[in-house]
Write a structure and sequence with these properties.
This protein has about 180 residues and is an alpha+beta fold. The protein is built from five helices and seven strands. It has a seven-stranded antiparallel beta sheet with strand order 1-7-6-5-4-3-2. A hairpin with an 8-residue loop joins strand 2 and strand 3.
Length: about 180
């Protein structure tokens, strides 16, 4: 019994320290990638603003060919929703909604993951003129983890986890748009 008390106090001390660290650790993460596409900005923007077109270049949209997809609203407008449901654990179930559009420049999305775990993140795509016939496309994600789960941000590297998928998707987008 005498040995149990120090063990319990030590465990309690570890929990308290972890909770204090979690209070000091950031709750947000950001990741983005960009690519240059040899097409005029207007042409690129008109393609990427349509959520259905992500099925042609997004790694996540092409992971499960048997994924059930549903669309609600008018694509390319605020309020349009693209939903998915997959039996593949890494894909899960969720939906993406267009929540903002700055015409010719930026599209903002809210992504609601329902399964395997629930969370809500924000994503965006921007287009920027490099030259008359060249456009820089940036694709990014902003997320948040509530206290005390934000402690996981010390151990998770979202840039390393999601970055390669963004790079692959942007490379595929470039290939699609630059086809003759």
């Amino acid at each position: 019994m005498k040995i149990l008390k120090p063990i319990l106090l030590s465990l309690l001390g570890i929990v308290v320290v972890l909770l204090i660290v979690a209070a000091l650790v950031t709750k947000e993460y950001k990741i983005s990638r960009e690519i240059t596409i040899a097409k005029p900005k207007n042409e690129v923007f008109e393609y990427v603003k349509l959520l259905k077109n992500q099925n042609n270049y997004s790694v996540w949209a092409t992971t499960d060919p048997d994924m059930v997809k549903e669309f609600r609203g008018t694509d390319g407008t605020i309020g349009f929703v693209s939903a998915w449901d997959s039996k593949v654990k890494d894909v899960g179930k969720g939906e993406q909604e267009i929540i903002g559009i700055t015409d010719g420049q930026r599209i903002d999305y809210e992504i609601r993951f329902l399964r395997p775990m629930q969370s809500t993140d924000h994503a965006y795509m921007t287009t920027e003129v490099v030259s008359e016939s060249t456009t820089k496309v940036k694709w990014g994600f902003n997320g948040k983890m509530d206290y005390p789960a934000n402690l996981m941000l010390l151990f998770l590297n979202f840039d390393k986890m999601l970055g390669p998928d963004l790079d692959q998707g942007l490379t595929k987008l470039k290939t699609l748009l630059e086809q003759p």
